[in-house]
């Protein structure tokens, strides 16, 4: 079963790397920029997870296949550059949702194998799923998806929690993986389609109107127009 998890990890790297390439193209970056965004998106979350868990060396150092997969993804994308520009705006969120679901499973599974508690495993799953996308968006000067109103991290938490519960109950691993994947992916796609979002809590202060406007006097634009009218009249005289 470890082979299935490994190939799911590779699939997540490809999907996330492709999302980085798409965003790089839309941000008008050169091939090196595409490679950087693809790399940080594909292996950024897993790298942070391994560092937090104290795994040395991190996964892509011990297995450089991940790097070759990212290079191959970027190379194929360069060959099909014109097709990338034709992709709809909805492709990036959907690809990101698929990568998120895959990486949540990988991160949670790896943490549980190391003997961490369920809460820590869920956090590691969320970290694996969202950290790479956050780095990608920051480098592209975008507000990271996880910091927006849309349901993003919540979907990752739900998927990781489902994985921990089913794994603890002794449910067969293929079922655990499938249910966790569908939970995260289903919630994220539902949020994209129906624009579901968590409530926003913020203090809103409304400044009082200027004394001139409240008293019925002329506003600044009106005063300017009045001055222009008076100057024109003076010139005519």
Automatic annotation (TrEMBL):
Lineage: Bacteria, Pseudomonadati, Pseudomonadota, Gammaproteobacteria, Oceanospirillales
Source organism (scientific name): Vreelandella malpeensis
Protein name (Swiss-Prot/TrEMBL): Trimeric intracellular cation channel family protein
Topology within the bilayer: Multi-pass membrane protein
Domain of life: Bacteria
Localization of this protein: Cell membrane
InterPro entries per the UniProt record, alphabetical: Gly_transporter (IPR005115)
Residue ranges of domain Glycine transporter in the record: 6-79, 94-167
Location of region: Disordered: 211-237
The keyword Transmembrane helix is assigned to this record: yes
Keywords: Cell membrane, Membrane, Transmembrane, Transmembrane helix
One Pfam family named in its UniProt record: Gly_transporter
Similarity annotation: Belongs to the UPF0126 family.
Transmembrane segments: 6-25, 32-53, 65-84, 91-112, 118-139, 151-169
């Amino acid at each position: 079963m470890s082979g299935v998890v490994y190939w799911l990890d590779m699939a997540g790297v490809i999907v996330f790397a492709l999302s980085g390439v798409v965003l790089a193209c839309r941000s008008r970056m050169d091939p090196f920029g595409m490679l950087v965004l693809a790399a940080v998106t594909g292996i950024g979350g897993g790298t942070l997870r391994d560092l937090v868990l104290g795994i040395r060396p991190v996964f892509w150092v011990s297995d450089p296949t991940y790097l070759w997969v990212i290079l191959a993804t970027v190379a194929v994308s360069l060959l099909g550059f014109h097709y990338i520009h034709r992709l709809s705006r909805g492709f990036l969120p959907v690809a990101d949702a698929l990568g998120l679901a895959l990486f949540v499973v990988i991160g949670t599974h790896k943490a549980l194998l190391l003997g961490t508690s369920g809460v820590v495993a869920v956090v590691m799953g969320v970290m694996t799923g969202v950290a790479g996308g956050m780095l990608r968006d920051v480098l592209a000067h975008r507000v990271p998806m996880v910091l927006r109103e849309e349901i993003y991290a919540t979907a990752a938490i739900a998927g990781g929690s489902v994985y921990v519960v089913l794994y603890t109950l002794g449910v067969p691993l293929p079922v655990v993986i499938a249910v966790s994947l569908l939970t995260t992916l289903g919630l994220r796609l539902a949020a994209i389609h129906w624009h579901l979002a968590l409530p926003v809590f913020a203090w809103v202060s409304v400044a009082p109107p200027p004394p001139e406007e409240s008293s019925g006097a002329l506003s600044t634009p009106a005063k300017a127009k009045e001055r222009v009218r008076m100057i024109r009249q003076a010139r005519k005289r």
